[in-house]
Amino acid sequence: MRVTAFTGAAEGRSEVYRDAVEAFGGHLAKAGVEVVYGGGRVGLMGVLADATLAAGGTVIGVIPQSLVDAEVAHTGLTELIVVETMHERKATMARLGDAFVALPGGTGTLDELFEAWTWQQLGLHDKPVALLNPAGFWDPLLAALEHMRAAGFVRPAARLPVAGDADEFLRLVWPTPAGDATGR
């Protein structure tokens, strides 16, 4: 199984985000779940890749040539796929993953999250989309979504599952009777 992860090219101002992303990547690797992400070596993207690789996991990065040229590509990945545009990057990441998770990040993370979630709502894919919410990072977004739901702009059934850690995320996206999150 593969998780397409969206996260920041910055680390943020709190170590709690770095620690959560590091633990998430390590846990996925130990569970045998591969990671697909934006291919950068900087910020939480780099933390996720490094933690997953350090735990023996597989990491596939997808990055546009412009960011390779800017020297932000992670060169130590299992596989690095270089594409021409950001649109190609998102489409490739979506195709490669079996589930999506948004970790702490900024506008790029929001863009990727909302596109994957919107595509799910439109029936363009049936892959799970969830949030990892360390220290309540996504709480303001969840409140805004609830406001949009109450105002009639988001369907009542359209909810983003929220996980506090990797174990909970894996149970949310791949529940199995035996508790084996990888479905094996």
TrEMBL record:
It catalyses: N(6)-(dimethylallyl)adenosine 5'-phosphate + H2O = N(6)-dimethylallyladenine + D-ribose 5-phosphate; 9-ribosyl-trans-zeatin 5'-phosphate + H2O = trans-zeatin + D-ribose 5-phosphate. One of its GO terms (biological process) is cytokinin biosynthetic process. The keyword Endoplasmic reticulum does not apply. InterPro entries: LOG, LOG_fam. Its EC number is 3.2.2.n1. This is Cytokinin riboside 5'-monophosphate phosphoribohydrolase. One of its GO terms (cellular component) is cytosol. Belongs to the LOG family. The lineage of its organism: Bacteria, Bacillati, Actinomycetota, Actinomycetes, Micromonosporales. The keyword Hydrolase applies. Pfam families: Lysine_decarbox. Keywords: Cytokinin biosynthesis, Hydrolase.
